[in-house]
Prior knowledge:
Blueprint: H1 11-20, E1 24-27, E2 34-38, E3 41-47, H2 56-64, E4 69-72, H3 75-83
Parallel strand pairs: 3-4
Antiparallel strand pairs: 1-2, 2-3
Amino acid sequence: MRNAARTDENHAAICKALRDIGVSVEYLKLPLDLLVYHKGRTFLMEIKAEDGRLTKEQVRFIARWPGEIHIVRNEREAIEAVLGKDAFK
């Protein structure tokens, strides 16, 4: 496993967008980027750049983790992961 995970450029904007809608966000870094809590629901979120891919370690972790995980690339996807696909209607 890598020792120093790179933070994608969209990370700060996604965290701000989530916090702006009242979501609790804790940066974990590894194995995935964020621990997210909103209205009784807790899940993990991985932030990727538009062309980013999961590492082998992340793929293995996701395959064995029984809880909810979302992989997002922008603020809209992050908010939809929390509020649902109707968030922007």
